[in-house]
Amino acid sequence: MRILGLDFGTKTIGVALSDELTITAQTLTSLSRTTLQRDLEALLQLIREHQVDEVVIGMPINMDGSRGPAAQAVDDFIDRLKSLTAVKIIPWDERLTTVAAERILLEGDLSRRKRRLVIDRLSAAIILQGYLDSRPKP
Length: 138
Prior knowledge:
The chain has about 140 residues and is an alpha/beta fold. It contains four helices and five strands.
């Protein structure tokens, strides 16, 4: 079983993938956003290529628990993705994942330019790892 993790942004979609035992999340790639159709096609290709059973998408919930326009955009994206695949789609609270990713990259002493290149996929891995850690262990 494989699970894909997504950090859905306006310019990129960070992508992470679980190991086959669904214990750990690893960064996979960042997709540059183009059109909705092309974004969906690229994700469907990754789902097929990696034989993904579930997709976890970060849900941008405000710190006070409310949902704004970004959360609505993710909901709309989830609806479109669900219409194209039978894979289970799971929204996951992504509060502070970008902050955590930025902190990790700063501790790794990466330049601002290099951080920009990898932050989305690292955020996706943090989202996915949070989901994996929350699941009951066999």
